[in-house]
Every structure is written in C-alpha cells, then in structure tokens.
Amino acid sequence: MAAVRTSATVALAGNPNAGKTTVFNNLTGGRQHVGNWPGVTVEKKEGTSRHRDLTFKVVDLPGTYSLTAYSLEEVIVRDFISGEKPEVVVDIVDASNIERNLYLTTQLMELGVPVIIALNMMDAAESRGVQINVELLSELLGVPVVPMVGLRNRGTEELKDAVAAAVGGEARFRGIQVNYGRELEEEIERLQGSIEGEGGVPPEFLGRYSSRWLAVKLLEEDAGVETDITAYCGRDCAVFKQFEDSRRHLLSIFGDDIETVIVDMRYGFVAGVVREAVKRKREDAVTTSDRIDNVLTNRILGFPFFALFMWLMFFLTFFLGKYPMGWIDSLVQGLAKLVNTNLTSPAWLNSLLVDGVIGGVGSVLVFLPQIFIIFICISILEDTGYMARAAFIMDRIMHWLGLHGKSFIPMVMGFGCNVPAVMATRTLESDKDRMITILVNPLMSCTARLPVYALFTAAFFAANQGTVTFSLYLLGIVLAVAMAKLFRKFLFPGESEPFVMELPPYRWPTLKGTLVHMWDRGSLFLRKAGTVILAGSVVIWLLSYLPPGIEYGSSGSLAGMIGRALEPLVAPLGFDWRAAVALLFGFVAKEIVVSTYGALFGVGEDKAAISASLQQVFTPLTAYCFMAFTLLYTPCLATVAVIRKETGSWKWAAFAVGYSLALAWLVAFLIYRVGLLFGLGG
Q: Where are the alpha helices (DSSP H) in 424-510?
C-alpha cells in the first residue's frame, strides 16, 4: 500500500496580469518570503499552504507568455518545472482573455507535468459577455479546471481540493497534446527516435524533459535546448543529423519558418478549444475598462490625470501620515528620556544610546507611516491596472527618447526603491534600452529620500508639503527624460525596438493584497533601519563625539573637520559644512541624512528640534536646493552595487555616480542663483 503524501511542491505559472500574485497571496497568506532566483536578479516568491493533512510549498513563477526561452523569465519557468519536478503546476488563466492565455497552457502540457487550470477572473469574463463551459473545457484539455475570482478569494478552497486530488493520484490527467499535422508529427516522431535511441541524449536528461518536448523544441530551433543536447552528445550526434534532415524536409513542404508553423498550430488548437467551450453573448460590447480608458488614456487627458494621481499620492502621504508620525515621535522621545534618566554613566555610553542609536534610528523611523502610505498608493495603482496605463501614457515620450513605454515601468518602480527597479530592467529585450533605463533610474525619487523631503518641507513649506514634494518627483522625471535623450544620442545611438503595450482590465484591489504588497516593500525599510541606518548612525555619533572634550557635533569634531574640508564644494549652492557631512553619509543610505542632522545639531531624534535648527542655517530657497541635490546626487551604495551587477562593469557604476553628482550640483546651483536673481534668498 502506497504511503499517503503529506507534502508537495506546487508551482504557479501564468501570463502577466492574469492574477497570479493574488492567487498566491490567497493560498499562502502571511506564510511567504521573497528572494531572488539563484544566480539572477529576478524575484522569487515562495510560501506554504495547508489543506487537511497536506502541506504544500507554493512557488510563484515569473509571469510569462510562453516557454520559448526568449527571456530570462521563460528560462526560469521551464528550468524550474523540468528540474525541480513539482507535483502540480497550477496555470493561472485569465478567463476574460482565455484564448491568449491558453497558449502557455499548451506548452505546459507538452512538458508532461500534471497541470491544473485556475480559471481566474470569471467575473470579468461574465461582465464581457463571455460564458465558459468549465466541464467541457476540462474534458477538451484533459486537465482539471477550477473557476475562480481571485480578488474576492472565490475558488481558493476548490483549488486546494484539486491540488490535493492531484497529489493523491485521484485526479485524471489525460495528457492532451497539440497535433501539429501529419508532416510535422512524422518528423517529431523521427526526432524522438533519435533522441531516445543509441547515440541520443542520456537517460538523466530525458528524466527532465520528454523526448517529444525536446523534438518540438529542436524544430523551433530553441537555442537553450540545442546547447543542452550539444553538451551531452556533441553536434555530430545522431540527434542533430536527424534534425537537419527533418528541417530541410519541412522547409521544402512549408516554405516558411518552422517555428511560425508550430506557433500557428498551437493557436489553431487553442482556437478550436475556445470555439467549443466558450460562447460570447456580445462580440462588440464595450466593457467598463474600455469606457474608463477612453478618459484615462485619452491622448489629451491622459497625462493630466497621471499627474493628478501622482500629486494626490503625495498629498495623502503627508496628510494621513502626520498623525501616526506624531505617535511614533512621542514613543521615540519617551524611550530616549527613559534611557537618559536611568543611564547617566558612563557619559559616552549614554551619548551612544541616546544620541547615536535612538537618535539616529528613531529620527528615521518617525517617517515610517509616510513610507507605508506611499507603498499602499503604489500598490493600489498596480493592482487596479492603472500602472500599465501610466506606461502606455508615457509611451509617446519614451519613443521620442528612443525608448518605449516598457522602459517607464522600471522607472515608476523607482518611486519605491531604485534597487529592484534597476533589476526590473531585465524585462527589456534591447541592451541599449536596458542600459539607458538603468542609468536614469536613480533620478526617480525613491522612498529613501522621502524622510529628507518630509523633514525639510515640514520646516519650510508646511502649508504645501504635498505640492513641493510632487515638484521634486516631477523634477526627477523631467531630468530622467532629458538624460535619457542625451544618452540615446551620444552613448547608445539607434532606434527603439517596437513593443505592444498590454493593458489589463481594471480591477478592484483587495485589502489583503494591498497590505501584503505594502508589507513586502515597507519591511525592507525596517530591515534597513535595523542594519545600515543603525551602523551609519553609530559611525556618525563616533565622528561627532570625538575627539574627547569637544562639544558634541560641533565644527571641532571629526565630523566637523570633514565638513569644513568639503564646505568649499557646496558653498556655491548656499550650503554650510553640516550639509556636506549629511550628503556624504547619505551616499550609504539617503535616510541617514536626517539622522546626521540630528547628530550635528545635538538634538538626537527630536523632529521639532531638528526642524527649528534647520531654520537657523537654511532659507526656503536653500532648503529646496538641498532637497533637489538629495534627489539627484549619487545613488545609494546598494543601488551602485546593483548597477555594477546588472551592467557587468564598474565603469558604468562609476559613470552613474559621477554624472548624477555633477547633475545634482549643476541643478542646485541654477536653482539657487535664479532664486537669488528673483529675490528669493531671504
């Protein structure tokens, strides 16, 4: 009697925007973690789910339209499925775009793995007048089909039932294969014989892939499969001899690229399935998404609406964030007072804890609510489907730069954090587009700069915090556009590649999904506060405390000596030596700028005291110049490291540091001098 399985691995696959992340969150809840796939920078999500006596690990594979290995995501998906051999692959299919989504399904079934179709967004399909016979679809494809509405958590338990049945051997998988027609099937069979026969590929390779799948991939001239087979048996083996014979024969018959014929056959199979199982009530019905797009992506109205949503995001960030910020500020000050009262000696330890640790980390943690709010806003824009529209709206400008709208997506991601945004450029097919997008991405204002903006705008522009901050984000976008144009003309000349922008249907975001996304991103800030910012705060305290006997944070301290040495470089911008020190330490992490000022003013974590001290050394004009400099100057240390990794060269990482520093100085200088001309220096 076979043992009952209590654990299994389940892979989630599907097209981008099919709701895969929502289904993953519904299955795993808080039992998930995020990392990177080994050796690459593509995000890897894993979680666990429980159903009765079964615990299964859920792996959220990158979204992809096919398994043709044209992109890194496609390679990751098929390598994981073939190498890790998950017990079940759940294919998330957008029911409202079923014909396009089922193309990936045919390729997953060709891999010979148990596939369950999670037919998501059934409500969107129904609203479009699409009726799907789920039982007939399951019969035609030979795999279980589970109807779902992921955003409302409908169908999750039924999906768990289907997974448990598959793992327990109770589900039927008939293994329907696409029939490619007599001529192609004959050559596929011949290739299978050479693959399995003497002089073919070894058994351990066939343990990963079926011989039929390998034969089809060879006929598609899949470079990855050709490389793998060459490594096992060389180019002179029987497999490649048969491949050349089959290729010549098929070219003589079809007179066309064989891959195109195979793709057409797959779509023909999908069209046949859809014709049988899917009925459309209104072929030309205008959907709600279409009506909204007529306004939000309008050639004239699109950009003003985009600007309005961005401004609203910053207004809400400051308006809603000020209340919990006050609570956290009170807690931090209370903790500092408690330590100050009960630990009076030795004096250096008291100063280290109060001025260094609590003052440094606490002065940054105060801004945590604003960072979480901005991540909530970004998550809502992504989950509703509007972020894809933002890329579409910017597509015309991107083309003028020699890029395309797809480049704008990593740039928008830079509003959250430049590190994953630079990593996201891997989705760009053109190396030139990718390099330009990497180099201008740090000009997009990340949330690490937000504490600096919040501190300075509260001190100098309290009545218009959201508007002033919005102007800084807009300044970053404008300069990123200008630098991209220059880089395209002088460093990476050439035309941009054509790209079709996919616009997913609008959806209501779920509270759970929004909170999960907020925590995934916001927790990175908390971890940074406990590591990089803590370490930086201790170093700043040490430099402000030494040499012994000087006034803490004064110009006679080590920090003051460093600042005095650098002051001539920033004096033309209206800054003093403290600004030089703050900007220097901000290279490690931009949030440290805030804690540096707390140390140099000798007021620790007290936000009100820092603001009052800033008003003694800055004017509104120089404060804005300082924020502009913070926006534009050198990327943080983590971003520089990932630029080096993604470009494969320290040369480009050094270039990113050098040009952004020069640009920051020039822009701040121009703002300062023009402001003085208009009498704004007072």
A: 431-440, 450-460, 465-490
User: Are 632 and 441 in contact, with CB atoms under 8 Å apart?
Assistant: no
Estimate to the nearest angstrom the gap between the alpha carbon of 605 and the chain centroid.
32
Residue 501's CB is within 10 A of a number of other CB atoms, namely: 16
Residue 399 burial (10 A CB sphere; 0-12, 13-18, 19+) = middle
Is it the case that residue 513 has pLDDT exceeding 80? no
Distance CA 317, CA 385 (A): 21
Report whether 116 contacts 89 (CB < 8 A): yes
Give me the amino acid identity at 436: I
Note whether 538 and 356 are within 8 A (CB): yes
- Mean pLDDT score of the chain: 81
> What burial class does residue 561 get, using C-beta atoms within 10 Å of its C-beta: 0-12 exposed, 13-18 middle, 19+ buried?
middle
> Is the Cβ–Cβ distance between 557 and 550 less than 8 Å?
yes
The CATH architecture one would assign to domain 182-254 is Orthogonal Bundle (1.10)
Q: Identify the three-state secondary structure at position 24.
A: helix
The residue whose two tokens read 């309008």 is 298
Distance between CA atoms of residues 69 and 429, nearest Å: 12
Q: Which of 312-321, 444-453, 566-575 has the lowest mean pLDDT?
A: 312-321
Least confident segment among 448-462, 544-558, 666-680 = 544-558
Q: State mean pLDDT over 477-496.
A: 84
When mean pLDDT is compared across 94-98, 131-135, 252-256, 539-543, the lowest value belongs to 252-256
pTM given for the model: 0.62
Would you give the DSSP letter of residue 286? Answer: P
Distance, CA of 70 to CA of 72 (rounded, Å) = 7
End-to-end CA gap in the chain = 87
DSSP letter for 142, please.
T
Q: CATH assignment of 7-167, given 3.50.50.60, 3.40.50.720, 3.40.50.300, 1.20.190.50?
A: 3.40.50.300
